[in-house]
Amino acid sequence: NEKVEAVFNYTIKSIKNLSYARYKPLTYLNNIPKEIASLMVSQRNMSGFMKSILVKRLESSFEAFKKTVSRFIKSYKKFISMCENGDVYISKKVDVYDLLDSGDDEKLMELVEEEVIQYYPIEVFRKDFIPSLKHDLKILKELQDKWEEILIDPKKEQFLLELKKREELKGSKIIIFTESRETAEYVATYLELHYPEQVLVYSGQSSRSVRQEIEANYNPNYVYEKKDDIRFLVTTDILAEGINLHRSNVIVNYDLPWNPTKVMQRVGRINRVGTEYDKIYVFNFFPTAQANAQLPLEENIMLKIQAFHDTLGEDFKYLSEDEEISSHNLYHKLNSKESLEAEENEELSELKYLNIIRTIRDDNEELYQRIKKLPQKSKSGIAYSEIQKDKTITFLRKGGLKKFFIADGEDAVEISFLQAMKYLEVLPNDKKIKLPKAYFEHLELNKAAFKLVLAEEDELITENVTQTGNDAKVVKLLKAISRCKAFTDEQEELINKLRKVWEDGNIPPSITKEVLKQTQNIKDPVKMFYEIIDILPEKYLEERKGKKKTNISGQIKVILSSYLKKEDAR
User: Fold this and answer.
1) What's residue 500's pLDDT?
2) How far apart are CA 352 and CA 359, in angstroms?
3) Is residue 264 located within the same domain as residue 158?
């Protein structure tokens, strides 16, 4: 459609032309105080992060993009009004993880407004600050006006067409993944019109009863009565881990995730031991050429998946036929040393590096002591030929949480230990280089990406940490119904978990009030139990069902970094 194409191209151009002044206000100060000088790099990077959010929402769905633009407009209007009153309250420190928390765009905008504030009189800002804000608001309003005229959705139409014409999709149980909750709700709504009562949508805000419905329809190991009334499961990445869904053999990636590892996690829900299917089908909506030029998601994911193939010897194509699978030519490689190494699992591969350290400890005590005494924030640079552009790898830690990240000046992504070792392992003759200024920009990107992970880890803890009077009322209700003999062992265990999360003050007051309101006239303990389960989002029980939560107390520590300078030969 020519009109849609024109608006789409206009949108990409507009996203590039935004100054994003609302999200990097400290860069507009006339004189930058010494105490905030260190924040300038992350402030300047904000424009890139906010641009990526807009592009990703545009690629996810037109519906998600329209709602995101509306939130941007609302935020800009409030901020401009505050500035024009002469009193500017902004964050003393902008944390990127707050802005990118879980890809939840609604919460993103809330967190921007709720940051710890610091006062600045408008006179300390450059004269172009308010004009830059108004320039952005004008662009955003123009975008909103143009998108209000777009009533068709080519992505939706293509998906519905594929469902009708592709044999692999006809009658199949299909799992549709998206990063955006708004996209998930939108897709579920239009699928419901074409396939009534066959669609289920799931996100972090869904209740436990919805998850039980999913297990009954998609988990072959579900211990209770199995169902087969749901054909389309539309979900965010909250279901990409921790649940078996292999009564389905079809996944549709409605958009590509921020973290490339999630592509493999999504496929892992159906590509499991015990599946009854001979083939697994993965369908992908790839970014448009225009959007991919601004945010190269496809290339980033392809490169990372290729690294997994190279490291783990996987023989499965997640995205396209362009992936080179290391174990594909079996006869050629079965007798090679490389093949044997590729077939090692991750634990054995990690053991290789542990053995190197042990050998140094036992045979070269002087070198071992030098390694032990290396200071935090140790950094180095090497010439590296196997990259397309300069990169920096950083190893970060906060409490017990340790992660590797790699940045290229535009984006930062988490990588595994083995991937990091591939870059960090050097030979005695490898060329050492002086660190350029770009290293510090890369470092800030890696730290920002780590903070995003920390925000996801800490989400349940930070929502509510004190018990209220209403919490005690719910605990009393749960104690009362626990005396009922009609519950199964699993239900009794779940009641105990419910008591614990309310006793710990982990449930937001709004949910607690809703539970008390909806249960006040229920006398039957079993009905009351199911009412509470229906109201409580699943995520509040997830932490207690899974692994012990990692301790993430203390300060963020940069352990080491390595700058990789692209060079013709290594």
Assistant:
1) 87
2) 11
3) yes
Torsion of CA 159, 164, 166, 171, to 10 degrees: 110
Residue that has been written with the tokens 């009954």 in this structure: 216
pLDDT reported for residue 349: 56
Domain contains 173? yes
Q: Which residues fall within 8 angstroms of residue 319, CB to CB, at 6 or more apart? A: 263, 282, 284, 298, 301, 302, 305
In a domain, 308, yes or no: no
CA 274 vs CA 130, 478, 538: distances in Å: 61, 38, 26
- The answer to pTM > 0.85 is no
Counting as low any pLDDT under 50, the low residues of the chain are: 92-103, 105, 108-109, 111-113, 115-116, 289-298, 301-348, 459-465, 543-548, 569-570
Q: Are residues 81 and 130 located together in one domain of the fold?
A: yes
Residue 388 CA to residue 384 CA, distance in Å, equals 10
The pLDDT, as a whole number, for residue 551 is 61
Q: Using one digit for the tens of pLDDT, what is the confidence trace for 258-296?
A: 666 677 778 877 877 567 888 889 898 875 544 444 444
Domain that residue 468 falls in: 462-545
> Tokens 């909103």 map to which residue?
144
Question: Where among 97, 128, 148 does a domain terminate?
Answer: 148
Q: What is the pLDDT of residue 116?
A: 46
The CATH code of the domain that includes 275 is: 3.40.50.300
Q: If residue 159 lies in a helix (H) or strand (E), which one and from where to where?
A: helix 154-165
**Is residue 139 located within the same domain as residue 159?**
no
Q: What is the 3-state secondary structure (H, E, C) of 507-540?
A: CCHHHHHHHHHHHCCCCCHHHHHHHHHHHCECHH
Full DSSP string of 248-292? --EEEESS--SSTHHHHHHHHTTS-TT-S-S--EEEE-PPPHHHH
In degrees rounded to 5, what are phi and psi of residue 54? -65, -45
State how far the Cα of 261 lies from the Cα of 266, in Å rounded to an integer.
9
